Amino acid sequence: MKQKKVVQQFKYSLVAGLVIMGLGACQSAHDQERDHELSDAVAAKQAQAERQQQNVMRKERKEMRAAHEAEMIVVTGSRVSRADANLAPQKVMMPAPRNPASYSDVNREQYQEIEPSDVHSTLEQPVSTFSIDVDTGSYSNVRRMLNDGYLPPSDAVRLEEFVNYFNYDYPNPDSEEMPFSVSTEAMKAPWNDSAHLVQIGIKGYEEKPVDLPPSNLVFLVDVSGSMQSDDKLGLVKKALKMLAKGSRAEDKISLVVYAGASGVVLEPTAANNRVKIEQALDSLTAGGSTNGGAGIELAYKMAEQAFIKGGINRVILATDGDFNVGTVSRDHLIDMVERKRKTGISFSALGFGTGNYNEHLMEQLADKGNGNYGYIDNLLEAKKLLVDQRAGTLMTIAKDVKIQVEFNPAVVAEYRLLGYQNRMLEREDFNNDKVDAGEIGAGHTVTALYEIVLQDSDGKRMEPLRYSDNHPQDGKAMAKNLEEAAMISLRYKLPDQDKSTLYRDYLTAAQVNAAKGGDNIRFAASVASFAELLRGGKFLSDWSWDDAKRLAQQSKGDDANGYRGELIQLVGMAQVLDEQSATGSR
């Protein structure tokens, strides 16, 4: 019995041992399986990371390749192909759109630094020389900022573009042989009782729209990722459709786009084929980096292909100016535009959008390309530039226009030119026909304002020189005519000429002293003071926002389109923002 009990215990122990061994084996297999699973997960993550890295590298190589290929694109007949004639023409594909939110995080807008206007002693420097300017982009760009609820940086405010945004009631020239009229007016400076304001007004000859020569227009549209928003590419499409609708059967329109690469979307097409033109514009989407240099080169090639002898040949760039790949050197781009203008193809720039707007480059390209620069912040501005002022925007009636004013030191003690700081020329440049200057479009008005202080005034800002031989009383002996306050000279070339013509007029002392100023000069003064206030008001003494607004209201005159009324509203908006800023700083 005892032996039987021992045998049973042995069996139980054996079974228990076998069970334990089985359980251990199962646990080991489970552990091994779990280890394999962990190892597989780590390997999968590593493989995924490697694939992502490879994708990034492929994307970078693709962008570098696209940038390189953009430099090689040429126009061949009706297609776009690589420079290598052995390669078949390939369709240009735009990169995938990028998230527009990534462009609004940082404000990278660029403006040229503008120094305050200088006060000059007439005895030391009696001659003032500058190039005219009919650009208006600064005003509409600043309007955008004020409407968005913030004051502009001072360098964004160019006084002459504020003043020239508005038309003035200057006399019309008699014929295109004398392409513009010149008139002068004077008044007491509103912000300084001891000074006078002198206005030089120019009105360009304007033909009827049906009399405009045929036009060859190349729309050069930036479709890079930074343009992906309604106020950029969306507004570009609407604006260019407006311009196309005003064209005729004899006019030609082409469409070139650029991002990482450039391509022709629309061959030169009769402008009355609006369905085809609008379909081409509607097809545009944004995405990729910005190779503006390659786009400009291709646009000029299209303009050369459809060149109209004796017609209007112009490239019109529409962009936010954010060139970030390819030819990005400002000097290189300007040099390209300068060289091409000699072929009879002008260059205009239309700015759009916010955040990374490169206004400095846009303005310089248009100036050097014998074109004009405008900023379009809404459809009304597009209508103003491209419909209402179509002739002035497209047709140049006088080029290389320079103004030189010589003040009589016997009458004028000091003077200051309001604005035009980046248009100043050397005295000897006036008679040099090789020096580039500004252009006047059909029907354009151009206004220049001088603040002057007469010799008998107590308002001089500069102390007389103690050791100078040229005392004011000696200036009378030097003056040919004591009745003259200044001699105003203009040089200009007709569009098809390389030799300039001289125009000369005189401003009398009696005109300066007697004139009370009409609506033209009074409204121009209100606009100028608004710009000066936005820049800090260095020369305005205690002149205020309310003063600028009141003067604009009193001199508004005929305001059929409401532009002058809008200015008054903008002055009020700037005043509120300025007061909020002052309160916040305290």
TrEMBL record:
<feature type="compositionally biased region" description="Low complexity">
    <location>
        <begin position="41"/>
        <end position="54"/>
    </location>
</feature>
<dbReference type="InterPro" id="IPR051173">
    <property type="entry name" value="Ca_channel_alpha-2/delta"/>
</dbReference>
<dbReference type="Pfam" id="PF12034">
    <property type="entry name" value="YfbK_C"/>
</dbReference>
<dbReference type="Pfam" id="PF12450">
    <property type="entry name" value="vWF_A"/>
</dbReference>
<dbReference type="InterPro" id="IPR022156">
    <property type="entry name" value="Uncharacterised_YfbK_N"/>
</dbReference>
<dbReference type="InterPro" id="IPR021908">
    <property type="entry name" value="YfbK_C"/>
</dbReference>
<feature type="domain" description="VWFA">
    <location>
        <begin position="216"/>
        <end position="397"/>
    </location>
</feature>
<dbReference type="Pfam" id="PF00092">
    <property type="entry name" value="VWA"/>
</dbReference>
<dbReference type="InterPro" id="IPR036465">
    <property type="entry name" value="vWFA_dom_sf"/>
</dbReference>
<feature type="region of interest" description="Disordered">
    <location>
        <begin position="31"/>
        <end position="57"/>
    </location>
</feature>
<protein>
    <submittedName>
        <fullName>VWA domain-containing protein</fullName>
    </submittedName>
</protein>
<dbReference type="InterPro" id="IPR002035">
    <property type="entry name" value="VWF_A"/>
</dbReference>
